[in-house]
Amino acid sequence: MPFVTTQDGTEIFFKDWGPKDAQPIVFHHGWPLSSDDWDAQMLFFVGHGYRVVAHDRRGHGRSAQVGWGHDMDHYAADAAAVVQHLDLRNAVHVGHSTGGGEVARYVARHGEPQGRVAKAVLVSAVTPLMIRTGDNPEGLPKEVFDGFRTALAGNRAQFFLDVPTGPFYGFNRDGATPLQGVIRNWWRQGMMGSALAHYEGIKAFSETDQTGDLKAIGVPTLVLHGEDDQIVPIADAALKAITHLRSGTLRTYPGYPHGMLTVNADVLNADLLAFVQS
User: Fold this and answer.
1) Which GO terms describe its molecular function (predicted)?
2) Could you tell me which of 32, 81, 220, 234 has the fewest CB atoms within 10 Å of its CB?
3) Catalytic residue from among 36, 37, 71, 229
4) Domain ranges of the chain
């Protein structure tokens, strides 16, 4: 299995499909999942001749379950280690949810300074800041994220069943048809990872202010968000993020949930392809 070892000794698992001389598209997954969450996009883009790369964040999926570094700085540095190991250039980086925060920090601190990034995409991303603070009064109260921690510590397996069954894919909405395979796959990915990484990751995705990262990004950046996102409300995320980007484009989707990259993959894939080719 392909791994890269980071400077602090953490083994990061990655996938690398497609022609090695093709333009690379790098996918960054959300909490508490793995690179498998990008199956629909990776198969789509490799079928269109692109090189597709995705890694499991430290403590997630098949990467090492280390007891340290569960923060946005390490997430971005780990992504950089994969990119450097594969010597990826002219890459498009696509991040979902927490992975969107990872993309923003990677591009701002590693990718653009090294001249390796062509474009970026933030899908249902946590940027710029989720938690309510004095400077971010519209954010979600800390009690929301404390509830996540309590549920995870109390019964992670049940919590990881409740999230995809309910708000993540919008299956709790009237008229929605829950897809059992999608729910079970979310649960499977989550339970592969480390409880500690997931617990500490809640602080990483909710309390990391990435306003500076967004302002530092100069490459064309596409921001995609569902208007019925119950996990990362659009008003706290995309509608703010777009104001900080120097070359940003916003596209929103009425009625789409947080997990739209899976349940609305046909629409998302077409829009991603159009952006990559533009």
Assistant:
1) chloride peroxidase activity
2) 220
3) 229
4) 3-277
